[in-house]
Amino acid sequence: MISPKLAFLGAGNLASAIIRGLLEKKLYAPAEIACTSKSGVTAKKLAADTGVICESDLSRLLATADIVVVAFKPQSLADADPRLAELTKGKLVVSLLAGKTTATLARSFPHARNLVRTMPNTPAAIGAGVTSYTALAPLNASDRAALSAMLDALGIHLEVDESQLDALTALGGSGPAFLFEYVAAMREAGIAAGLTPEISLQVALETTLGAARLLARTGESPEILRNKVTSPNGSTFAGLQVLAACGFRETIKETILTSARRASELSKA
Ligand SMILES: NC(=O)c1ccc[n+]([C@@H]2O[C@H](COP(=O)([O-])OP(=O)(O)OC[C@H]3O[C@@H](n4cnc5c(N)ncnc54)[C@H](OP(=O)(O)O)[C@@H]3O)[C@@H](O)[C@H]2O)c1
User: What residues flank ligand 1, with Cβ below 6 Å?
Assistant: First the structure.
């Protein structure tokens, strides 16, 4: 008799990352996890790849599940199956949907025993993400442990007050896009300085990775590490003066503040 404990609505990148992480750590057997997807294509593939159950019938999918992970796109929430309200009664609902507040989620899942709103970022798909989350009501110990095991698969995670989620959406959620733009700018600058596109991209990427690892491993502040690279009147010093004159920090601040304001507007829409 198959009785899934964990059900996924959506079987894309993040559902797949979480399921693979849980199976790898042997926290669930494949038969204890079930998933569904709109077309059925991604759910069937995930089931074939991992051994979890693909179940297109919503009542069968959710009958024995204690935790339901909402892993489809945010825009699908408005036209999600209305039976979900009753079918998630008494269960822990964990949403991955960007920008959907706990108040909005509570309208779709009014009888859940608790609701968790998470904000992962794209490196989560390779287990290197930062996920911030907030719960509608304080989490009990067993729900917290189950949630923590799930989010571990995506990288690091931190519980925050919901009022901080717009800022975290900008810094953590959109942060990878800003960093990709930075690497692209470094690549273009290297080409302007006479390098080939291939060498320029490789050096921009590896320098970004190496510097981030150094920062994480030494635990020193970015300013201290910056100063260690900078000799008085040397080449780094000359470059940093241009960054300061162009208002680099102000630009980044305005980028994050604008992104956070937009996240706030979108979550109210
Ligand atoms: N990827 C990230 O790094 C990231 C970062 C932050 C937040 N998020 C959030 O995480 C969620 C999932 O993202 P993702 O990248 O994993 O998306 P994805 O790879 O595009 O997968 C979306 C999944 O949802 C399914 N689906 C669509 N409509 C559905 C419905 N009505 N009922 C059930 N399943 C449905 C799709 O199935 P079919 O295609 O088979 O129909 C597919 O399996 C999104 O809400 C996103 O905002 C993701």
Answer: 9-15, 36-39, 41-43, 71-74, 76, 80, 96-98, 120-122, 124-125, 173
